[in-house]
Amino acid sequence: MNLPSWNAAARLAAQTPPERNRYVDFLRAASICLVITGHWLAIAFYSEDGQTYFVQALSLIPWAHWLTWLFQVMPVFFLVGGYVNGLGWASAQRRQLSYADWLAGRLQRLILPVLPLLAVWTLFGAALAFSGVISFGSSELYVGEPLLKAASQFAMLPAWFLVVYILVILLSPVAYRAWKRYGLASFAALAAGAAVVDLLSLGAGWMFLSWLNYFFIWLAVHQLGFAWHEGRIGGPRRSLLWAAAGLAALIALVTIGPYPVSMVTVQGEELSNSLPPRLPLLALAAGQTGLLLALEKPARRLLDRGGLWTAAVLINGMIMTIFLWHVTALLLGLGLTFMTEVGVSLLPGTAAWWLTRPLWIAALAAVLIPFVAAFTRFERIGIARRAAAPPVWRLLLGCALVCCGLAILTLRGIPTQTWPGINLLALGLPFVGAALILFRPRLARAPGE
Q1: Which of 177-181, 308-312, 343-347 has the highest mean pLDDT?
Q2: Is the four-CA dihedral 12, 16, 21, 22 of positive or negative sign?
Q3: Do residues 98 and 185 make contact, with C-beta atoms less than 8 angstroms apart?
Q4: C-alpha distances in Å from residue 417, one per residue of 58, 144, 153, 172, 429
Q5: Which of 54, 77, 80, 234 is the most exposed place for a label (fewest CB within 10 A)?
Q6: DSSP 183
Q7: Nearby residues of 251 by Cβ (< 8 Å), 6 or more positions away
């Protein structure tokens, strides 16, 4: 077991340079906690009239669609990403580092932690493809191809973020150059592009164009991160204007426009605001940006006091592992619930169901802990100091293979109808891509070293 400890985090927290913006790390940590809580609340089993159902809770609790305005925090990740990437690229330019050096460093911590997840699901999927049964005591759960497909698609859900975020990182230097030249107009241009895509996809029926908004919307939010880093959003009053404008636009879009209230995909609804992303998500991002930046100064004062900052350091030290494995922990918890029938009599949305959610979240946290203890080390593996960055073509090819493999797994799951029953090609592509990205030849020693 290699679980990060509070004392170790406290030591790291005490070494934080005074110039570091702790609020950035705090937002990243708080956002991941909201994402996990939202996912753990979103899926449930319940039994009625002798039948057991596996459902999305939002499909049974319409009023909870409004809660997704709080729990949909992917815009915050891209906002923070823009801040960090802008800071990092500006620093790389001052130090005269190449694009390859900068990119290799950014990709390492993103890609390494996903490999154990793929390896475990490869072994798990292969075992189920042969046996098709999960046993727990005297209970057995038959897992056919449809269930394995749905479960593996859900387990790979965090991978969609990696695919999009890797693409945004690849474009960060170009986006930063556009920011330096055009300022907030670069954000406005991307927002206008997203509006045109929605108009053509929803108005003209060209639905295939809607996937372009993965580029327009998330890169637009990323530009807001540049604006934050350079103080272009403004002080608290101007930030609150951003918040008010974003909220007003969001309300107008979901009441007057064709968009649903929920900021996440809801089972049974024809239109989704997040798959692919649409204008309401951009309006939410603008509102969240304004509100969070209006709170920045008091939040930074709180983070200077120690305890809250130590918690942020602790979570950030294992953030990718938590993010990647929390859905697998949820699936394991749901499987145990199904086989033991503990709590399946509670209908989602009832008072009893809500009152038991803290216990449910605590139980899933206990299931997640062993995964974190086993796999956090992959976030800490360093590259040899005397190692040359791979050439740009290798980094780009590696990213293409990683993103292609993860996208296939997210959209189709891991099973196939051909031997050996799992998609070894899609599962293997990220490993090949990771090898291209992470393998670095050691530099020759200079004379006298």
Answers
A1: 177-181
A2: positive
A3: no
A4: 32, 11, 16, 40, 19
A5: 54
A6: T
A7: none
Which residues are within 8 A (CB) of 68 and not within 5 positions of it... i.e. 6 or more apart?
A: 38, 58, 261, 262, 263, 264
Let me know: does 386 contact 445? Beta carbons within 8 Å: yes
What one-character-per-residue DSSP string does 376-442 give?
A: GGGGTPPPPSSBPPPPHHHHHHHHHHHHHHHHHHHHH-SB-SSTTSB-HHHHHHHHHHHHHHH--PB
pLDDT, tens digit, for every residue of 375-401?
998 887 765 455 678 899 999 999 999
Cα torsion 260, 261, 266, 272: sign: positive
- What pairs with residue 274 in β-bridges? 277
Beta bridge partners of 20: none
Which two three-digit tokens encode residue 380? 């800490």
**Sequence-separated (6 or more) residues with CB below 8 Å from residue 96:** none
Sorted by where each begins, the domain ranges of the chain are 6-183+215-235+303-438
Residue 367, classified by CB atoms within 10 Å of its CB into exposed (0-12), middle (13-18) or buried (19+), is middle
421 pLDDT band, cuts 50/70/90, is confident
